Amino acid sequence: MTDTSKAPENCNTMAEVRAGVDATDLALIKLLEIRYGYMRAAARIKETRGAVRDEERKASVIEAAADAAQNAGLPHRDIAEIWDRLVESSIAYELIEWERIRG
Questions:
Q1: Angular region, 10: left φ>0, alpha ψ -120 to 50, beta rest
Q2: Are 42 and 52 in contact (CB under 8 A)?
Q3: pLDDT tens for residues 28-67?
Q4: ∠16-17-23 over CA atoms, to 5°?
Q5: Count of alpha carbons within 13 angstroms of residue 43, beta-carbon side
Q6: How far is 41 from 47, CA to CA, in rounded Å?
Q7: According to the CATH classification, is domain 8-102 in 1.20.1250.10?
Q8: What is this structure's pTM?
């Protein structure tokens, strides 16, 4: 949410809702930029290509997101699916970065 958008409970028009959604989307992109930065760091730190994929860590990250979503009253199964895709995308990105670094 930016300074120009309202909190959801304060919205009275669809224009206000859309402004809030748009601002939230931009904030999510900024957070994803940071998350993918950590993937670049992981690619730099991990010594072997095989270390990039860690199924136990993947499951833990998805479970934590689903639990947090459920605690927040959000659709936790949907969030788990979104996080599964996010983690897979992150792994793919990290592999590309790992190869680029060691090219």
A1: alpha
A2: yes
A3: 999 999 999 999 999 999 999 999 999 999 999 999 999 9
A4: 90
A5: 20
A6: 12
A7: no
A8: 0.90
